[in-house]
Amino acid sequence: MDLVLSKRDIEEMYKCISENLVREGADCVLLIDRAANLIVNCGNPMTLDVVSLAALSAANFGATAEIARIIGEEEFSLLFHKGRHENIHFTSVGENYILITLFGKDVSLGLIRLKVEKTIKKLQEILQRVES
Amino acid sequence: MAFIDFSKREIQCKIVYYGPGRGGKTTNLLYIHKAMTENVRGKMVSIDTKGDRTLFFDFLPLSLGSIHNMSIKIQLYTVPGQVMYNASRKLVLKGVDGVVFVADSLRVRRANNLESLANLEENLRGENLDMTRIPLVLQYNKRDLADGEIPLMTVEELDEDLNSQLHVPSFPGSAIKGTGVFETLREISKITVKQVHEKLLKR
Question: How would residue B176 be classed by pLDDT, with cut points 50, 70 and 90?
């Protein structure tokens, strides 16, 4: 499946991520597809190698899905890595996309999860419209 | 899965280097990485490599100029060649737009080439892709050993083995010396971008 996004689609997704997650304290949010294409890049990723981050995240998500299948789960829909200063949260958006949220130690995981859920609903609407 | 972003005027495609273990897939990427300037290539990422085998994948992003005012971004991946790592290979093939099959010219590796090509066909089918339709280029690697004492298959034999039904572009190469590496990359980029362009922009 291929994806073609107009400027309007991208702006709409950027606005949704920015309002729901970056404004609430996430440092950087990426929307990628399962093939690791970077679709939206929001927040403050200036110092990050986002292209490598996208490739490794897609692989990580895929590898974890295989682990899930081995233990009889279809997929782990959520992944979270905790660092000393920075945390990273991965969630699947439908079957084809992954939302990656980076946030610092001052932001609570609960808040991020809540906001991620809201963001995903809206992103799914936009992506379904684009795909159809 | 190619991705076109009209806000950045950018086309992103994924090209995967496939082939039997120790055939030279990673060496191809390393040569490209070494030979290209920093403004064209991104950072090469290799993960989980113990010894000289790729256990998961290598990754190298490239910017290859523009067509019709759209800039072309290509992401090169390699897969682990060893038979047992098929789950990783399937993961890397997800969303692929073009494939380079790096065949090993060593005569003792003949069966490995055939097995790997059959495995590629099967894994592509799993992604609902047809090997006869997807952009595909063959590279017959390790031709630099032709002068040595190790028996190699001839290019004609390799063509007969691997390309008699596919009829895709093929290049003799030596990834370690760089021979044929850019010819292969140029051809696969050209046909992949052409197909993506035809498929997406003209619909």
Answer: very high
Lowest mean pLDDT among B75-79, B113-117, B197-201: B197-201
Q: Please list every residue in chain B whose beta carbon sits closer than 8 Å to the beta carbon of residue A34.
A: 1, 94-95
How many other C-beta atoms lie within 10 A of the C-beta of residue B14?
A: 27
- Give residue for tokens 């949220």: A101
Yes or no: say if B144 and B174 are a contact pair by the CB < 8 Å rule: yes
pTM of the prediction? 0.87
Q: How confident is the model at residue B27 (pLDDT cuts 50, 70, 90)?
A: very high
| Spatial distance between the Cα atoms of B113 and A42, rounded to a whole number of angstroms | 44
Q: Do A37 and B12 touch (CB under 8 A)?
A: yes
B8, B43, B57 ranked by CB distance to A49: nearest: B43
| Architecture label for domain B3-197 | 3-Layer(aba) Sandwich (3.40)
Domains of chain A: residue spans and CATH: 7-126 (3.30.450.30)
Q: Which residues of A touch B195 (CB under 8 A)?
A: none
Q: Does A67 touch chain B (CB under 8 A)?
A: no
Nearest Cβ partner for A56 among B7, B45, B200: B45
Contact B73, B10 (CB under 8 A): yes
The separation between the first and the last C-alpha atoms of chain B, rounded to the nearest angstrom, is 16
